[in-house]
TrEMBL record:
This is Response regulator transcription factor. Residues 4-122 form the Response regulatory domain. The modification 4-aspartylphosphate is found at D55. Pfam families: GerE, Response_reg.
Length: 223
């Protein structure tokens, strides 16, 4: 079945461009559009999309709050949110990820990256491009822990290997890349990631990455 996508952006021209790109793909179907967060909520309820391509800065309700209401606690719908951003709006991206977004993508990303990101998010994975993630967190390093703060108690519930996996997740590595780095199977990595999410009470690997930076486990600029 085709991946059902809802386009949310206050610029009609951008929505048209995204629609043209996505409708050229056999496994993607654009089921609707919205020009602000409130319209997005109505469309999500009515259309039940698999993926919401979400702008951040919009009138009436921004993308962060719309994301929170679409994917927040107690939400059982299928919709995953893929946030669209530009570098001048980076400060909102971490908030969107905290709110439950499954990843983010630059608005000027090539068409093939947009399509691939939608497929990744629809499959239940996180879209964390390592280079963009590092640039984003480096830029806002002043708002994140320095690494000198006490480690959260919840972090002590993880095994040494689970901590290793969490650090690699925070760098944006896929399960396959983590498996290669640690010389284990992808199945083993999936098991470790699942344990990390359960022990820390996190929704997905995006929130795990944010946690790793906010807890000081991984510091901006670290490789």
């Amino acid at each position: 079945m085709a991946i059902r996508v809802l386009l949310v952006d206050d610029q009609p021209l951008l929505r048209t461009g995204f629609r043209m790109i996505l409708e050229a793909e056999q496994d993607v179907a654009v089921v609707g559009e919205a020009g602000d967060g409130l319209q997005a909520l109505d469309q999500v309820r009515a259309l039940q999309p698999d993926v919401v391509l979400m702008d951040i800065r919009m009138p009436r309700m921004d993308g962060v709050e719309a994301t929170r209401q679409i994917t927040g606690p107690g939400r059982d719908g299928p919709a995953k949110v893929l946030v669209l951003t530009t570098f001048d709006l980076d400060e909102y991206v971490v908030e969107a990820l905290r709110a439950g977004a499954s990843g983010f993508l630059l608005k000027d990303a090539p068409a093939n990256e947009l399509v691939q990101a939608i497929r990744v998010v629809a499959s239940g994975e996180a879209m964390l491009a390592p280079s963009i993630t590092r640039r984003l967190l480096d830029k806002y390093a002043g708002h994140l822990p320095s690494g000198d703060e006490p480690v959260p108690d919840t972090l002590h519930t993880l095994t040494e290997r689970e901590v290793e996996v969490l650090k690699l997740v925070a760098r944006g590595l896929s399960n396959a890349e983590i498996a290669a780095d640690l010389f284990v199977s992808e199945t083993t990595v999936k098991t470790h990631v699942g344990h990390v999410l359960t022990k820390l009470g996190l929704r997905d690997r995006v929130q795990a990455a944010v946690y790793a930076y906010e807890s000081g486990l991984v510091r901006p600029g670290a490789q």
